[in-house]
Write a structure and sequence with these properties.
Blueprint (H helix, E strand, L loop, with lengths): L1 H10 L3 E9 L5 E11 L2 E11 L2 H7 L5 E8 L2 E7 L9 H5 L8 E7 L3 E8 H13 L3 E7 L18 E3 L3 E5 L5 E6 L12 E4 L2 E4 L3 H12 L11 H78 L8 H11 L5 E7 L19 E8 L2 H12 L4 E12 L4 E10 L1
Parallel strand pairs: 1-4, 4-8
Antiparallel strand pairs: 1-2, 2-3, 5-7, 6-7, 9-10, 10-11, 12-13, 14-15, 15-17, 16-17
Keywords: Membrane, Transmembrane, Transmembrane helix
Protein name: Fimbrial assembly protein PilN
Organism: Lacibacter cauensis
Length: about 425
Amino acid sequence: MLAEFLKKKILYFRRAAAIEIIISENDDLCINMIIGEIRNNKIKKVSEAFVIDSIEKLAERIDSKTPVSVIINGKPVLVKEVRMEITDKNSNLVAMAFPEIEHSKFYSSVFKSEQIAAICIARKEAIDKIIERLIKADIKIYTLSIGIKAIENIFPFIEAKSVDSIETNWFKATFDEQKAIAQIEQKDTPDKIWTNKHEYLIGDQYIHQFTLLPFSALIELLAENIDLKESIANGVLAVKRKEFKFNRYFNIAGIGILFFLFAILFFNYILFFRLYSKNQELQLRLPIITGATNQSRLVQQGHESIINYIKEHDWDKRTMISYYADRIASLLPNNLTLLSLEAYPEKKGASNFSQTMLFTERIILLKGISPDPSYVNAFMNNLATLPGLETVKLKKYFRNKEKMTDEFHIELLIK
C-alpha cells in the first residue's frame, strides 16, 4: 500500500499541456494549445492559445519540462465512419474500414459511439516527421493520438443537454435525441478565426471550441499517471517516456537523499547545541550543587542528632497514644465537639534541645466545645473507664463570649 501511494505521488503529473496540430492541404500548420494543472484535486485551465502557425512559436509558449499530449489531424489523417449496427464486438474496425492498406505502415485510432464509429488512420512516415520537429523544438511529448478519439474523455463532464452538437475548428459532431454522437463532419480547411466562437461548459469552467480536443487529451494526461497506456505506439516516444519516468524517479530520489542528509546535519546541530547548552547549564549549577551538598551534610548531621536525642529519651518505643485516640473518639458524645487532642504536650518555657525533657510525658490534653456541663461530666465518666488511665481531670470550663460557646479542657494522665 505504501509503495503504491509513493508511486502515485511520484508519477502523477501536476501540470501538463495538450496541443492539436491541424495540417492543411498546403502543409500549413494550425496549432491550438491549452495548459492545465491540478488544483484541489480538480483539473483547471491555466492558459490557452489558438491558431499558432509554427512549431517554433509553440515552443515559446510551453516550458521544456512540461509533459505534452499531442493530437495530429488534417491532411495526413484519413477518417471513415462505420455504422455500429453492421459490426459486432469482435470486429476489427480498422481492417473493415480500410481493408486495402498495409496496417504496419499506419497509425490508427477508433472512436465509438452507440451509432457510429470513426476510424482514423495516418501514415507513420508523415506523423513521425511532425514528432521529430516537436522533439527538436525541445517539446516533451508524452502521448500521441490522431483523429477525435480523445473527445470521449469530456463526455461525462460536458453539458450535452444544452447543445445539439460540438464543434472545433476541424470537425463537427452532431448528437442524436439520446445525446449520443450520430454524425461526424470533417471540415475541408481548419477554421482560423478564433474570436467570437462558442465556449463549452465543462464541469465548472468554459473551454473554447478550438481547444476542446486538446482539453480532452489534457484530462487523460493529468488524470492518469506516467505509466498510462499510449494510444499510439511510437518507438521514439516510448524511449522519451522511459527517460521522463526515470528522470522523475531520479529527481525524487535526489531530493530525498538531500533531505536525508540535511536532516542528519540538522539533527547533529540540534544535538550539539543541546549538549553544549546542557554543559553550560551544569557549569553554572555546579556551585549551587556544591553548596546544596554541603547544606545536605549539615541537615544530615542535624537529623542524626535528632535521632540520637529521640533514642536517648526512649521516644522510639511503642506507645498507647493511637489506642487512646481511637477510644476517646469512640466515647465522645454526639453533643460535644472535640477541637484538639495533644499527646505529650510541649512544656512551657522549653526552647531548645537539652538534657531536660521538652515534652510532658504521660499527658493527653483534650479541648472541645459543649452546649451543657452535664455532657462534659458524662464524657469524663466514660473516659474514666478506659484501662491504663490514672486520672481524668477537668482543667478548664469557661464561656467564650466571642464565639458564644462553652469550652472545656480535660487532662488525662496515663499510668
